[in-house]
Predict the structure.
Amino acid sequence: MQRPAVVDIGLADDDATEDLSEKMLGEYRLIRKLGNGVMGTVYLAERLGDEFSQLVAVKRIKPGMDSAAVVKRFVAARQILANLDHPNIAKMFGGGSTTDNRPYFVMEYVRGKSIRSYCDRQKACNS
């Protein structure tokens, strides 16, 4: 009863409860949330390797959304992204699974407006 049920099953976020200060996924330190989708959350992260550091975007499945069907779809999307090579599509650098077996993938961080903001603005401009 401490949090709404929609937060517990992953249909909404509870920003106040998520402390990213020490959150690591492999060699990536999560810095801040960039956005949400139906299945996952995208974070700005920093690769903390021995030889170089790099800002990246990390997408992982939300808690409670990790059913077998959703995981299968997420992993399939990860594979599709890995095979894409186009200058207007963020490159995928890798992926893995969290300690609680939720898959994630790491991709190029592209600074700028979200695709949703861009589309909303274009729709308003074309009206």
